[in-house]
Amino acid sequence: MLDRPRGNLDPARLNSPPWRSASMPATGLFTTALSLSRFYDDVHRPDGRVAARLGSALHAEYLAPQAVGHDLFVDGPVEWSLGLRVDGGEIGMGGIGGSCAWYSPEHDYSFAFVTRSLGTFARVDALADAVEAALPSQAR
């Protein structure tokens, strides 16, 4: 069963210093779509800022599949790195409410969509289709 920490919908609690400084996977990220797309544009680059912070060996390990198999939550095959989904060379992560961000090596672009409401991935799928349709034909 999916659940959320008590008070997760209370803006006063969410904006409090203790909440913002806590380490909570899957609920503790405060960001914008622009920042996420910039992160995904950088994370795959061996000469990027993430690689510079991690060093080349750790950066390569960070992006390499660490767990491969059937994911019971998404009910399908997945490849996970150290925190990112890396299926077929695409690097990304989705969220329960429909937020999603990734880098596509096939099309050489990064993308991010964040939402303040719960929903499916139908919105982000439609946006991704529109972006890829607008790319020059050699990028498709």
TrEMBL record:
Per the record, the domain of life is Bacteria
Q: What InterPro entries would the database entry show?
A: Beta-lactam-related, Beta-lactam/transpept-like
Give the start-end ranges of region Disordered: 1-20
Against SUPFAM superfamilies, the record matches this protein to: beta-lactamase/transpeptidase-like
Which residues belong to any copy of the Beta-lactamase-related domain? 5-130
One Pfam family from the UniProt entry?
Beta-lactamase
Q: What is this protein called?
A: CubicO group peptidase (Beta-lactamase class C family)
Q: Which organism was this protein described from?
A: Herbiconiux flava
Q: Provide the taxonomic classification.
A: Bacteria, Bacillati, Actinomycetota, Actinomycetes, Micrococcales
